[in-house]
Amino acid sequence: MNLPRVRPFLMFEGRAEEAMRSYVSLFRDGEVLELTRYGADEGGPEGTIKMARFRIAGQEVMCIDSPAKHAFTFTPATSLFVDCESMEQFDARYEALLEGGQALMPRDDYGFSQLFGWVQDRFGVSWQINLP
Fold this sequence. Notes:
Shape: globular
Structural class: alpha/beta
Strand content: 35-45%
Largest sheet: 4 strands, mixed
Oligomer: single chain
């Protein structure tokens, strides 16, 4: 393990695997790197994600299903920024992430790139999708 490194860490309450698999499907290099589940009597609901690591667009991300209930969730103040290589790639990612979520900044030309959109996906994670 090469230290130090910085990785985004996403905390869900029961939907980590669904979110992770959705994200991995959107990127050519998307891959689940490690997945550990809670077993019986381990503090979290059996079968949920105790810890997982996955890669999207060269970035390693960690996620869990927190067994503790929290008074907070994801906020758009922190987002994942994705540069796309083509209009087709932009459209596919934007539409997939928007499904069941909401547009925070609808896809448009805001003057700083060809096309940009900011969405909060159905899991609550915010994504800035950009076509430079």
